[in-house]
Specification:
single chain; globular; 19 strands; alpha/beta
């Protein structure tokens, strides 16, 4: 199915991965990102074996591993430092054939962008119209385009190692396929499924940052500590810095005048390295957002020649660390289906059948994991949970991880012209 064209709406992890996969399948791809400045807002990310397998299928696995830190040590603890469960990342890597890694989001975004031609990425452009009435084409109208090459401030922030794009030559694009990777608040999802209720607040809010400097005494590669309605975790990076996140039960929309001071107040009694991580953080580096999710599953990830992908299709809570991994699975599965099928419609039907059941199951399990983990607040319930975890055999804990991370990507093999 060569010489076909696609427009990917959204330049995040899922959108960029989809564009890479579609190019491997022989498609011409344009990625349209509404943000005018690609500042890669975000802290760090942990990628399980399924995400790393997807990245390997896209040809960028080695680059990601080189920029990441393998997660071999750590686990789950209580606020006083007692160990609930230990992490054996080396055993998981042997079992799955792929490592679990931690990487700054900015580094992952940069690697994905660098795998695409510069001219395929357009920034500062927003989809304002969508015409799906044509039986074999999709027409998308855009507005507000800018070019990093003509915006000095943006060009300075992007620097030479980030792709630059020309402005769109027209205010619309026509393509054989449109991929909606425009995030949890997807406008395209609302356009295609107007009766769907959309995202809802999960009950948790998250504050996070990357430390300004390496943290002395940071021994664990990845660690989570559960308190009462609160969680603190960190992901260590190769240079000794780390991402930390603090997840709290809170009403939607709560914000703090000094977020870092609030985190220090909340977690002051908790074990090391939590105080050291916070001491190594600049106040202006702290990000704060509410955790929303799609609790009502979509009836389909496809509408005509539009495919939904990533958070636009199945936004989930972070309690299993599978959000980005599922988006990467989406990207590889979509590209493989389009490479093999004789028609776009047939490929999209295969994509929906493969991805919707799995990703919606993972989203449901992530919600349950949050309720039994970070969100659990009653002292008696927390005590019973902790006792149950301590009594769980290590093999059973490993199988719980393998249930979500054990995924084999389909091969992206373009059909002969």
């Amino acid at each position: 199915m060569s010489s076909s064209s696609a427009v990917v709406v959204g330049g995040g992890i899922g959108g960029l991965a989809a564009a890479i996969g579609l190019r491997l399948a022989g498609w011409d791809v344009t990625v349209v990102e509404r943000a005018a400045v690609l500042d890669d807002a975000g802290a760090g990310i942990s990628l399980a074996a399924n995400g790393m397998r997807a990245l390997a299928a896209l040809g960028v696995g080695e680059a990601v591993e080189a920029a990441a830190r393998r997660q071999y040590t750590g686990g789950t603890r209580t606020p006083d430092g007692r160990r609930l469960a230990a992490m054996d990342g080396a055993a998981l890597e042997r079992e799955l054939g792929a490592p679990i890694v931690g990487i700054p989001r900015a580094a992952l975004h940069r690697i994905l962008r660098e795998a695409l031609p510069a001219e395929s990425l357009v920034v500062g452009a927003e989809v304002t119209e969508l015409d799906t009435t044509r039986p074999f084409r999709v027409r998308a109208g855009f507005g507000g385009t800018t070019s990093p090459a003509t915006d000095p401030q943006q060009a300075n922030r992007l620097k030479a190692d980030v792709l630059e794009a020309d402005v769109l030559e027209a205010d619309f694009l026509e393509a054989d396929l449109l991929v909606a990777a425009d995030g949890i608040n997807s406008r395209l999802r609302r356009r295609l499924f107007p009766d769907h209720p959309g995202p809802v607040y999960s009950g948790s809010t998250v504050l996070r940052a990357i430390t300004e400097r390496p943290v002395d005494g940071l021994k664990a590669d990845f660690e989570i500590t559960w308190g009462h309605g609160a969680e603190f975790g960190h992901i260590a990076f190769p240079d000794g810095t780390a991402e930390w996140h603090a997840v709290l039960n809170a009403p939607a929309g709560v914000r703090y005048r000094d977020p870092l001071a609030e985190v220090r107040r909340r977690f002051a009694p908790w074990h090391e390295p939590i105080p050291s991580l916070l001491a190594a953080t600049r106040p202006e580096a702290v990000l704060h957002h509410d955790i929303n999710e799609l609790t009502t599953p979509l009836p389909s990830y496809v509408s005509g020649r539009v495919a939904l992908l990533g958070d636009a299709a199945h936004a989930m809570t972070p309690h299993l660390g599978q959000g980005a991994c599922q988006a990467l699975e989406d990207a590889v599965t979509l590209a493989a289906a389009l490479a093999e099928a004789r028609t776009v419609e047939g490929a999209l039907a295969r994509y929906d059948a493969a991805r919707r059941p799995r990703s919606q199951t993972v989203a449901r399990d992530a919600r349950r994991a949050g309720r039994m983990g970070q969100q659990l607040a009653h002292p008696l319930a927390v005590g019973l949970r902790n006792a149950a975890i301590r009594l769980t055999p290590p093999g059973a804990m490993v199988r719980t991880v393998l249930r979500h991370a054990d995924w084999t990507p389909p091969r992206i093999a373009p059909r002969a012209a």
